[in-house]
Amino acid sequence: MKLKFLSVFLAIFMIFPLYANAKEVSSPLTELDRISDDALQMVKLSRFEDARKLLEYFSRQFVTLTSNGQQFSMDELRIVTISHNDALEAVKSESLEQPEKINKLTKFRLVIDAVSSTHQPLWTEMEGPIMSTFQQVQEAATNKDNVGFHENFNSFLALYDMVYPSIKIDIPATRVQALDARINFIDEFRPQVLEQATSQKELKALESDLKSIFDDMTEDEADPSLWWVIISTGSIIILTLSYVGWKKYKGDKEIRKDFKRDFRE
């Protein structure tokens, strides 16, 4: 897993160029979109101080935009504010590792695109990684592969967490709540899902819900100017899944070992 993580990490920095100044600014929202992307690029280059300055500049521009009459819903304001604060705290942190900082900035980047996009939102292009990872979860459950199930489900959760704020912007709250309920059930009752065929039906139901959300949001054609972001962000997602999923599984494994040791004592 470490080898996979390092290889994907290097590929991102070798293959994908910077995007700064590649898009023409046509509106205040487009400018905010550009700033969020520039901040992400700075984090990818480990230029955390530059990323911090860009995020602080974003905050000033966002306040100006709202005071000038730009309309946002209360949910949009809350989601943008939270994701921005998380991104800013991440770049300021001296203890947070770079992949986790990239995670926070990517989440923020997707949120701003969801708010500003008039085309297919960028987060919908993550259907491939999400559904591919979830298919591995289902295969592991069918094969009673305990390690594979936990590892792949943790990777799925990391990916879902990254797009979750953007989903909340574009999808009605009732559908998001239903999706959350299924995911929380599977997460809480992992042993039953692995052992009981009836519980595995929840996996099928969740797969159907996920496909339905993506199908409803998909348009025939994405904005061509977004394709570079789709490719780059997809690779960042893979990087984050490799790192966060592995790290979370290792942590869960240590907790289970400690529990068993305490029980024996």
Q: Keywords for this structure?
A:
11 helices, disordered N terminus, membrane, Spore_YpjB, signal, mainly alpha, 265 residues, Sporulation protein YpjB, globular
Overview of the structural elements:
The chain crosses the membrane at residues 226-246. This protein is 80% helix and 0% strand. The two termini are 33 Å apart. The chain is mainly alpha-helical and 265 residues long.
Distance between the terminal alpha carbons, to the nearest Å?
33 Å
Determine the fraction of residues in helical runs and give it as a percent range: over 70%
Tell me, rounded to a whole number, the average pLDDT. 81
Topology, number of strands? 0
Order of SSEs, N→C? Answer: HHHHHHHHHHH
Number of helices: 11
Kindly provide the radius of gyration, computed on alpha-carbon positions and rounded to a whole number of angstroms: 19 Å
Low-confidence stretches: 1-25, 220-227
What overall geometry do the principal axes of the alpha carbons give? globular
Content-based structural category: mainly alpha
Give the biggest sheet: none
DSSP strand (E) fraction?
A: under 5%
Into how many domains do the coordinates divide?
1
Keywords: Membrane, Signal, Transmembrane, Transmembrane helix
InterPro entries: Spore_YpjB
Protein name: Sporulation protein YpjB
Can you describe this structure in just a few lines?
The protein is an all-alpha fold and 265 residues long. The chain has one domain (2-264).
Compile the SSE list and pairings:
Blueprint: H1 2-15, H2 28-44, H3 48-67, H4 74-92, H5 98-116, H6 127-142, H7 146-170, H8 173-188, H9 190-195, H10 197-217, H11 227-264
Helix pairs in contact: 1-11, 2-3, 2-5, 3-4, 4-5, 4-7, 5-7, 5-11, 6-7, 6-10, 7-11, 8-10
Protein name: Sporulation protein YpjB
Keywords: Membrane, Signal, Transmembrane, Transmembrane helix
Pfam families: Spore_YpjB
